[in-house]
Design a protein that fits this description.
5 helices, mainly alpha, two-stranded antiparallel ribbon
């Protein structure tokens, strides 16, 4: 499998997993303040990194105050934006270096491949935090293991 196809597959999974988390938060009987903050952060960070890749200004704060409905809208929007970005990207562009500043204003340079990898891993990390918080509150967290949608044929 070509690396770009691998990334496209991961972003298909990412959209699915974010939707599963959102559904779990909607079904939660508990006040899910911190899990919602983490989901909003996932979505904001996914947008922020895409904007860095495209050398565009930052749209949202790193820790936005999104509602569940806003998260749903962002999931749909981001999935489309990442699909479009990854569709136009060539294999040679993965090694291209981009320069950006982190949220503290510190300058960095990273390859496109490393940024795209980071986005997928960062989102999975925070979905794990959400699952832990939900479980600690006596809730059943969303089952977002990668293999689950693959087994169901939701991801090719």
């Amino acid at each position: 499998m070509e690396l770009l196809d691998h990334f496209r597959r991961h972003f298909t999974y990412d959209e699915w997993a974010n939707r599963e988390v959102l559904a779990g938060l909607r079904a939660s009987a508990q006040s899910a303040t911190r899990p919602l903050q983490l989901l909003a952060h996932i979505l904001s960070a996914e947008r922020l990194w895409l904007e860095r890749l495209k050398q565009q200004p930052q749209t949202f704060p790193v820790w936005p105050d999104f509602t569940l409905d806003q998260c749903e809208q962002k999931i749909t929007e981001l999935a489309q934006l990442w699909r479009e970005y990854l569709a136009q990207l060539s294999p040679t562009e993965l090694s291209k270096k981009i320069s950006y500043q982190n949220s503290k204003g510190e300058p960095y340079t990273s390859t496109v491949e490393d940024v795209v990898t980071h986005v997928a891993l960062h989102s999975a990390y925070h979905r794990g935090q959400i699952a832990s918080l939900m479980r600690a509150a006596g809730e059943q967290p969303a089952y977002t293991d990668f293999i689950h949608p693959v087994r169901q044929g939701l991801i090719e």
